[in-house]
Amino acid sequence: MLPKPVSALTPNTFEYEQKPLVKPTGFREYDARWLFGPELNLMGVQALGMGLGTLIHEMGVAPDIVTGHDYRSYSASIKLTLIAGLMASGVRVRDIGLALSPMAYFAQFELDAPAVAMVTASHNDNGWTGVKMGAQRPVTFGPEEMSRLKEIVLSGKFREAGGGAYRYIENFGARYLDDLTRRPAFSRKMKVVAACGNGTAGAFAPNMLERLGCEVIPLDVEPDYTFPRYNPNPEDLHMLHAIADKVRETGADVGLGFDGDGDRCGVVDNHGEEIFADKIGVMLARDLSKVYPGAKFVVDVKSTGLFATDPELVSRHVHTEYWKTGHSYIKRRVNDLGALAGFEKSGHFFFNAPIGRGYDDGLLTAVHILEMLDRNPGKTMADLYGELPKTWGSPTMSPHCDDEKKYDVVKKVTARIDGMKARGDALIGQAIRDVVTVNGVRVTVADGTWGLVRASSNKPELVVVVESPASEERMREMFVAIDAILRENPEVGAYNQTI
After folding, report:
1. Is 122 a catalytic residue?
2. Which of 89, 101, 122, 468 is an active site residue?
3. Between the chain's N and C termini, which has fewer beta carbons within 10 Å?
4. pLDDT in the model for residue 130
């Protein structure tokens, strides 16, 4: 039996090579993330594999799993160690090799395997690793499954069993791209910047766009797991600015940016203006609700208020529900409601039948954006963006807060804002109209200006977003007010970026 994991070990010691290291905070709300080395060692990865295999058997699903890994210097070794743990617990593994997360989700359907374990740190900095897991396609684990997995792994109560097996699926990427490109040709020729941040998407996204008939302008598509320019993260302003510069330089119709594991897509219009993902979601909701009358949508609490107030969506009686931030939460809600699509401000978009299989896929998002442009032949991306009611919104801003403290801070901030509303206190000189606490706290004042504070689900950070339909000044006032409330808590550190 593998030894029971411990929560801390000193690297470069004999003990480090003889015991599994698994820091408990690596088990997040809907996936797992650790700093590889200080928080997780290879024996710890093996323990995670055995724990996942034990959970799969406990859930009563067939012990067949798809695995893949992203493009980082250590991801392949982590995946192979995870596989060793899975096989030791009696799981049959189908390894698709270097992959995007949505490619692994697609493989669950294509290879008829109920479970998935994708080794990826997504857009996190180098040094991070993690696993996105699921056993009920197309959804991935949520808090209940992650809590049980944590309990199994940290207790060391693994199921050891025979019957494990391994099979490598050669050239699976071609099957994934065939599926994405099996659609009618576009009626207009489009010039597209494909930005991949030197991450995994460079192996697949440019090829897909070329097969769709686009003129592709590659940007940072060469593999380099040091990520020399910026992390492959389409929410990061450095990446967005690089895409914008390339669009203006080349006269492209649109710029598309893909994150480290390819499940998100960022967009820059033909003028080089960065369009935040929630606004792209509104544009797609407008377009898709014409093609599919009665369509329902799900969006996360970080997203623009336009999903509820946009006159075009209102006139078509389009119903949109605001739900918890997180790819697992939105994915599950889209499937539970039978919604046509779900949109997260982070760029995770979920397309359900008949236009998708319910999971998040940045390359499929790109396809739907291009199809939207194709259905509007007389309009540019800037034209479509310009038709939206004007709001002033911030990027996602993340002040540091330790994993062990961030949820308590959010509770304090929520109580503070609830108290203000109960007392009738003003915020930015206005009455508080609404407080939503489905995920953190989102406070809206009389003129529709709102601010959000929640705990990041995958990093030691908080998440802050503000928006105003009234003016940029009001948006900035809301940020100052929210930040002032945050600063009442000394545990809150510096931001990664601010307005």
Report:
1. yes
2. 122
3. N
4. 96
